[in-house]
Amino acid sequence: MTDDSAGWNERTVTDQGAGSSDEDSPAVIYPLVADRGNERVLTEWLERSAQYTIADTDRSLEHAAFDLCIVDADGLRAHRTRLADVKAAYAPELLPVLLLLSDDPSAVIDLDEGAIADSVFAITVDEILSMPIRQAELTWRIKALLRLRNQSIELSNRAAALNRFRKAVDASGHPIFITDPDGTIEYVNTAFEDTTGYSAAVAIGNTPSLLKSAEMSSEFYAELWSTITAGEIWEAEITNRRSDGVTYTARQTIAPITDPDGEIRAYVAIQTDITDLKNRTRQLKVIDTILRHNLRNNLTTIRGNAELIAEESSDTIAEWAGDIVSDADDLLSTGQKSRLITETLSDDPELTDLNVSSVVSWAIDAVSATHPNAQFETDLADDLETTATIEFQEAIEELLTNAVLHTDEEGAEISVRAWADAESVNVSVRDNGPGISAMNAEVLESGSAPDDLHHGSGLGLWLVYWIVTRSGGDIDVETGGPEGTCITLSLPNNPLEDSAEH
Fold it and tell me: Cis peptide leading into 132, omega within 30 of 0?
């Protein structure tokens, strides 16, 4: 077939234009037309179009980059197997092939004694266009095939993203399940199966009630359900029951999944199995209690005997005995701070509304009772309401005591100020001592583990750090020079109902 034949209508190469492309960049076409005349006319038309560009035909089909292949009967006969292989390599993305077929298709149909009807049209060719061809029809067919390709690429990308999501969810190591709006489980990951003992086949179609244990109240589940159906995130510890009847404790977060209109379409639940952590915490509490009990009893005995020795001995021995009493007092104080730290870190922070000025005043009274020579100057604003853990007064008392002990108690001058700004409620403690050590400053600001427990100060300041940070606040330390040290505690200036995230 030549370019003068009826096979290729000359109106195809008029100046009417090829129509607009849906893509920003031209689509790449690989012409695989064996007929010389048709190949020339097709190539000229593609070169004249701004919507299409010609692939590098010097590269083989396997190595060329293109979006669509146009082939005629002879080209299909010569390259059918290679076309099928290339299309298979692109799967699941569609690499469309448009077959230009003459009015007499017998030559194509005779390929492989009729095998084309069973394989070529089903595997290799995506669209057939009979010649003679009009430009408008060719343009429409090409654009339709390119739209299908773009859709297949988008679906492939979505499928790949979904596959990555599934792999990430499975690799997370945390039990995750998704339910529909009514609470019916639609998906579980492998960690869910491993932790609960329920297979996906058993869990899917069921509800999370299959995990219920007798240790959670009906009020707990009612509050959970009312929270998530209101579109809010629920987070709490929960005790569930595995398929074998053994209970486990998890930190569970449940979040609604909404559509663009805000309608809840699903819920996703993520669990962290904290059973071992809870068991270890209980064990450490027991050990801590026993150690502190024995330490307190033995030190009390040592202290009492040292006091008797001091009363009935010479000056030197009495001085040594006095040192024993002092060290025993320090160790007893350290044991008390250890108990407070253990209690503080063992459970979730319990936030409460408090009046900062009142708490500071009570703390000053408590420290003044044990250190009557210390002088306290106060500047406390009225009505400083905020939220903090119930141990917040312990933090203030520790800072005040630390300021007194590290200053000449006879001349200790402690300035305490409390005020609020737009974001924070602040308490500052300033002393006239020599300045806090760099190590203790780091304990306060970053919670670094203390390695110098002289007079228990490192442990006490570590307690301050945890109380303040678990209240959602932070600590700033200014030290050096004749003005001593200024430690500022800052708490969020917000009501209790907005503080749950802390």
Answer: yes
Does the pTM surpass 0.70? The reply is no
pLDDT band at 502 (very low <50, low <70, confident <90, very high): very low
Of 311 and 290, the structure prediction assigns the larger pLDDT to: 311
CA distance 70 to 61: 12
| Residue ranges covered by each domain of the chain | 10-166, 172-273, 284-347, 348-502
Strand ranges across the sheet with 185-188: 185-188, 176-179, 264-273, 247-258, 234-241
Tell me: pLDDT of 21 over 60. no
- DSSP, collapsed to helix, strand or coil, labels residue 74 as helix
Which letter does DSSP use for residue 212 in this model? B
Q: How far apart are CA 39 and CA 46, in angstroms?
A: 11
CATH homologous superfamily for the domain 172-273: PAS domain (3.30.450.20)
Q: Is-contact 100 133, C-beta < 8 A?
A: yes
Q: State the CB neighbour count (10 A cutoff) for residue 209.
A: 8
Contact predicate 495/386, CB 8 Å: no
User: CATH class for domain 348-502?
Assistant: alpha beta
Dist. CA 13–CA 437, nearest whole Å: 87
Between 442 and 195, the higher pLDDT residue: 195
Asked whether the predicted pLDDT for residue 402 surpasses 80, the reply is yes
17: helix, coil or strand? coil
More confident residue, 429 or 449: 429
Identify which of 60, 53, 62 has the alpha carbon closest to the alpha carbon of residue 29. 53
Burial class (CB in 10 A: 0-12, 13-18, 19+), 192: buried
CA 135-138-144 angle, to 5 degrees, is 140
Asked if 468 and 475 count as a contact pair (C-beta separation under 8 A), the reply is yes
Report, at the CATH architecture level, how domain 10-166 is classified.
Answer: 3-Layer(aba) Sandwich (3.40)
Q: What is the average pLDDT across 171-182?
A: 89
Q: Residue 350 pLDDT > 80, yes or no? A: no
Q: Are 42 and 129 in contact (CB under 8 A)?
A: no
Axis crossing angle, helix 275-311 with helix 315-346, rounded to the nearest 10: 160
Longest alpha-carbon distance in the chain: 132
Rounded-to-integer distance, Cα 60 and Cα 72, Å: 17
Contact status, residue 191 vs residue 176, Cβ threshold 8 Å: yes
Q: Across-strand partners of 247?
A: 241
Whether pLDDT at 461 is above 50: yes
Q: How confident is the model at residue 114 (pLDDT cuts 50, 70, 90)?
A: very low
Count CA atoms closer than 13 A to 308's CA, side-chain side.
6
